[in-house]
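Hello,

Our lab assistant flagged a job as stuck in the queue for most of the afternoon. It eventually completed. Since we weren't sure the result was trustworthy after the delay, we are filing this so someone can double-check. Below is the sequence as submitted and the structure that was eventually returned. Let us know if re-running is recommended.
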Amino acid sequence: MSEWAVELEDVKKSYRTGPIEVPALRGISLRVAHGEFLAIAGPSGCGKTTLLNIIAGVTPADDGMILLRGERVQRVRRSVGYAFQQPTLLPWRTIRSNVELGLELRGVDKAERVARADKLLSQVGLSDFGDAFPHQVSGGMAKRAEIARVLAIDPELLLMDEPFGALDALTREQMNVELHHIWRETGTSVLFVTHSIPEAIYLSNRVAVMTARPGRIAEILTVDLPPRRDYGETMASPLLATLADRARVLLGAAAHRE
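-- returned structure --
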């Protein structure tokens, strides 16, 4: 097995609109260690979602190398979990049966599915809501259920595309704390896309700051904070302020170049 969960080398992607070729990504190179939480921050339209889709095998790159655990990505991988920004819970299924869905599609027997779902619902604080339907829970609860559903398949890699973007500020803070706890408990490798620089720094080991389209990695910032992080203390820490200032400088310089 490769020492890296994800390896990208000089990845490029363009889209064609009629006769016009629109560059989305240029020269993306990075490595993600096993168990690492890497946040990807950048302006709207810089190719963050395209990059996740390429890693997931949903969208082919035009050029470059994409490896997961040392193997080339040529199709969608069953070992990759994907959490989207928009709600994806099936409204006719209970919270528990939504969490079971991936296991059900893989032919896992009912008893094991229920046991796995109940364990994850406990981890995300939803033990009392397994029999509820999505419309009966809050937005934050629904997001926790979606994360539990992705984790139920025991993914080697978890991709998260602005999963908390539609939540109110307080619920988003709570979900940041929940996600950080879940990641520490599971040790899953995570790539997390966000527009929020403080969110990226609070959650991650490193932050890849991307330029405006065509997306490039301007710099990768190392987050030298304790593994266990109090949200309030972290947000008020001088290190977070320093890293956030550096990220804003990088984003501003990129915008100026464009």
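-- support follow-up --
The delay was a queue issue, not a problem with the job. The result is valid. Residues 254-258 have pLDDT under 50 and may be disordered. The helical segments are 48-56, 95-105, 110-123, 139-152, 169-186, 197-203, 231-235, 238-257.
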